[in-house]
Specification:
Layout (H helix, E strand, L loop, with lengths): L9 H11 L25 E10 L3 H14 L3 E9 L3 E11 L3 H9 L4 E11 L1 H27 L3 H33 E11 H4 L7 H25 L1 H27 L1
Parallel strand pairs: 1-5
Antiparallel strand pairs: 1-4, 2-3, 3-5
Length: about 260
Amino acid sequence: MKSELGYSEEADYEMIEDALEIPVTEQAPPPDVRFASQTEPVERKVIKTANVNMQVENLDSAKANIDQIIKRYNAYVSTDNRTNNTYKLSLDMTIRVQQDQLDDMLKKILSQASFVYTNNINAQDVTEEFVDLEIRLKNKRAVEEQYRKLLQKANKVEDILKVENELRMIREEIESKEGRLKYLNSQVRMSTIHLTAFQDIYHASQAPSKGFWLKIADGFSGGWYLLQEIIIGLIYTWPVTLVILLVIFLLRKRFKNLRLKRNRG
């Protein structure tokens, strides 16, 4: 017999039949096991994962705002990594938020961006796996209960050990399926946002090239500044300037007197 999901229940029946070969009593009654099957419609189970890669003007400011957004939506951060280098400041975060608040929270986060490179949401439908696990889990629990009844009837050590071994293996399968269901429920209930935000500090540090007229204006401004510095420098060095002027005056006077003597001679 197979369910709509393709799950065969024959293995569970064979497991019980094998257990019945244990000579617990001369006439052991067949186990009364009712296997579960899915007949009612179920709510869709969808895991949503968002991936965002965006550029911001100021990473520190954007990070502070994103932290406030996370608190406002009662979300939490599972990873938070910061990377700095010569070219850019980067932030990588993994955020978990209630699925019904995912879209609104994404809008608030994207409002911090100066440019968005990636913004997509992946929706994974796990309804079939979820239903299949629930059916298998119910069936395994039913088989487990029958083995427990067999264990109560066993009167030989060999029989008891054999049934206990079967119970142990079934219990491991049940715990495995319970763990998987718990994980799926968690992923469906809380959506995941993988966020990468960065600030480009390399291009921001490069000033744009100036045009011809701006360069001319800078030339006039620079020339006037240089003239002011020269005048101020001369004022600071006036004693030296005075001595130089006095020496030049005396030399010129001496040369003039020598020229006059030669002319008379």
